[in-house]
Design brief:
- InterPro entries: FTP_domain, Peptidase_M4_domain, Secre_tail, Zinc_Metalloprotease_M4.
- Keywords: Hydrolase, Metal-binding, Metalloprotease, Protease, Signal, Zinc.
- It comes from Aquimarina litoralis.
- With about 700 residues, this protein is an alpha+beta fold.
- The chain has 12 helices and 35 strands.
- Strands 1, 2, 3, 4 and 5 form a 5-stranded antiparallel sheet that branches. Strands 10-17-18-16-14 form a 5-stranded mixed sheet, with helices on one face. Strands 6-7-8-9 form a 4-stranded antiparallel sheet, covered by helices on one side.
């Protein structure tokens, strides 16, 4: 009986026609050279590579205009190069009005920073301060400036102060914190501190001790426990706001205590007998007033109720850490803070008690007016959403049409809806900030917002962001969380500070195409984005081949009869009506050796891809796992697959998707292994054994 052996699919095809040996930077610069007549910048020689990001969908290159090597403020040409080494998305935020000027500053950098601090009357603890030289033309005249960014204890905010590098004059000063919502600012805190029970009051430390923890040689990462709202008490209990399920000046009760969940706090820091909410992705800091310390303690059990200030600290750590682990470890997208060595900082008690929260400069601040913002995972993850947007774009976040507000609302809703606590027929199914808002304090927001782009844009970034979030959540409800989240994050990484909602939609769909999503899934993006009012361009036909394959000759002769590989390919075009053919044709005979298989998709146009097929003699038993000894079931599967086999030694099973991306690895050490695939998106997958030739195919429903 013939054995068909296919090697582990490990890489996306990285060669494509003439671009085979070029780097993404070379491909992007070649594209710039060919298309510079259509670009805003007048010279590709003055473009500096500002940043490059490798993601699941390819490389995104960010080029900034320069004059004499000095970057031009808020300019960027963003070019995405797919895994097939093709330019698939471009966003041009260059400045056509820049002229050459003298770039030698008359004011020292330190002096410019002092001028900026005096201007905003900065005082107290400086957790962020920087000063960088730029060429600037936002007021009609090209100037040399210092862009200073400052976060001090006072005034509240992350301040950007632009100082003329020749005269020392203030050109612009503004708070660039991205704030939670349009609630009334600086209102009196609606809580009585007398109601703070603090029955298990933790020990706190001062700011000056922060670095002692960071530098402690014997610090260890350990798991702790904590009590949190996941995501909020109303969603857990199926209740609406009111009665015992109301803020009541931060008082707890039996119902609210019962709505808590006991969770593991992963990788918190233990040093000198003290536990601190500091991990590889996130850490607590004391940035703004009220100063309540870091809630360190001598036990790893952080079990509090909402009447204790420590509860918000724990709630923040858990949700931020869980979300960042999901992105990095489940989705496989490398994404951490641009600041503080990649660790996100958060202060659970900020804004001097006002009802507001913010993201800025790698730091999250949560206010305490009304319902404490850090009690609601929606607020926590919304603010994280701004951070994700900031890091994905290397600091070029856009608020055009409220894009980043919509991103924050989507990221909060994506998590909450994944918990399945509300039915689609219930109003709360669509609520964003269902505990913090939708009450007497403020009306909250929704991902069931009845408005379209661009006719219904209001000019309010918080209101308009709901258009973007609503559109994404409709897609989410059709194709699922992980596919939508991946495309959202990868697409957002192709945008810059001038991107509007429509261009973000085009980028998100392009990310799905470049990641090899099934055409039916790509069509969902097209349909729902079009229904929102975004003008979606036609899709150029693409076809994705499987990775290189190895097969054995047919039993009884020295040749191999070619099988049907078209089912392993994926064609994407508008209408999803392309047909795929194969060369050499199915049933052809191939001798031993390496052969090129070409798959061609044909619609209104045609596109091809290739992969190598190695025909080998029957392989020795040391080289492969005999499939006759392995049973994989059920097929198709929903939650779990079971691998049953007669394994002599411990094996490692590597699972790949249709286009060769490694999805997960499983250690096999017993005859029957249950493998949880619940988190995998629907599709076809292949399992290969590390170091051996052999494959298993299964389908996830």
């Amino acid at each position: 009986m013939r054995k068909n052996i296919i090697t582990t699919i490990t890489l996306l095809l990285l060669t494509y026609f003439s671009n085979a040996q070029q780097t993404p930077d070379q491909i992007a610069r070649e594209w710039i050279s060919k298309n510079k007549s259509n670009l805003k910048t007048n010279s590709d020689e003055n473009l500096m590579l500002k940043a490059s990001r490798k993601g699941l969908s390819g490389h995104t290159m960010r080029y900034q205009q320069t004059i004499n090597g000095i970057p031009v403020f808020d300019t960027e040409l963003t070019i995405h190069v797919s895994n097939k080494n093709q330019v698939t998305h471009v966003e041009d935020n260059s400045n056509e009005n820049i002229v050459k000027i003298n770039t030698a500053p008359a004011v020292l950098k330190t002096s410019a920073l002092d001028i900026a601090k005096r201007h905003i009357k900065a005082d107290g603890y400086f957790s962020r301060e920087e000063s960088k030289l730029y060429v600037y033309n936002k007021t009609g005249t090209t100037k040399l400036v210092y862009v200073n960014k400052i976060r001090a204890t006072t005034p509240i905010g992350y301040w950007q102060v632009i100082v003329d590098a020749t005269t020392g004059e203030i050109i612009e000063s503004k708070n660039i914190d991205i704030e939670h919502n349009f609630k009334i600012r600086n209102k009196e805190r609606r809580k009585s501190t007398a109601l703070k029970k603090n029955t298990q009051k933790p020990k706190t430390v001062s700011k000056k001790l922060i670095h002692e923890f960071e530098n402690e040689a014997i610090a260890m990462k350990v798991d702790g426990t904590g009590m949190v709202f996941d995501p909020d008490p109303l969603s857990v209990s199926g209740q609406t706001y009111g009665g015992n399920f109301s803020d009541n000046n931060d008082a707890t009760n039996a119902e609210l205590d019962a709505a808590r969940s006991s969770v593991v706090l992963r990788d918190i820091t233990f040093a000198n007998g003290v536990y601190r909410l500091q991990g590889p992705y996130v850490e607590i800091v004391d940035i703004q007033g009220p100063s309540k310390g870091l809630f360190t303690q001598a036990t790893s059990d952080f079990n509090f109720n909402r009447s204790d200030d420590a509860f918000e600290a724990v709630n923040c750590y858990y949700h931020l850490d869980k979300s960042l682990r999901y992105i990095n470890e489940t989705l496989g997208i490398n994404l951490v803070s641009l600041f503080n060595n990649g660790v996100l900082e958060y202060d659970p008690s900020s804004f001097n008690g006002a009802d507001n929260s913010s993201y800025g400069g790698g730091q999250l601040n949560f206010g305490e007016g009304g319902v404490d913002d850090a009690e609601d995972a929606d607020v926590i993850l919304h603010e994280l959403g701004h951070g994700l947007h900031d890091w994905l774009t290397n600091g070029s976040l856009s608020q055009v049409n409220g894009l980043s507000e919509g991103c924050g609302d989507y990221w909060a809703q994506s998590y909450k809806r994944s918990l399945g606590q509300w039915q689609s027929s219930e109003a709360s199914y669509h609520f964003v900030f269902g505990w913090d808002g939708n009450n007497e304090f403020w009306p909250g927001r929704s991902t069931n917002y009845n408005a379209n782009f661009p006719g219904d844009l209001s000019g309010s970034i918080h209101r308009d962001g709901q258009i973007w979030a609503t559109s994404l959540m409709r897609i989410y409800d059709i194709i699922g969380r992980e596919k939508t989240d991946k495309a959202f994050l990868e697409g957002l990484a192709m945008t810059n500070s001038a991107t509007n909602q429509e261009n973000a939609a085009i980028a998100v769909r392009q990310a799905a195409i470049d990641m090899g999503y099934d055409c039916s899934d790509v069509n969902v993006f097209t349909t729902e984005f079009t229904n929102t009012g975004y003008n979606m361009p036609a899709i150029n036909l693409v076809v994705n081949c499987p990775g290189d394959q190895t097969v054995s000759v047919n039993s009884g002769n020295s040749n191999y009869i070619v099988e049907d590989f078209t089912s392993m390919a994926n064609a994407i075009n508008t209408g999803c009506n392309a047909t795929i053919t194969q060369d050499p044709a199915i049933g052809s005979t191939l001798p031993q050796g390496v052969h090129t298989i070409t798959l061609t998709a044909t619609g209104t146009t045609s596109a091809s891809c290739t992969f190598n097929l190695t025909v080998d003699n029957v392989l020795g038993t040391d080289d492969f796992i005999e499939q006759s000894k392995i049973v994989l079931y059920p097929i198709p599967a929903n939650e779990n697959i079971i691998l049953q086999g007669d394994f002599d030694t411990k094996e490692t099973l590597i699972i790949h998707n249709l286009v060769g991306q490694k999805i997960m690895t499983v250690s096999i050490s017993q005859k029957v292994t249950n493998i949880n695939i619940a988190q995998l998106p629907k599709g076809v997958y292949f399992g290969s054994f590390e170091g051996k030739k052999g494959n298993l195919k299964f389908i996830k429903n």
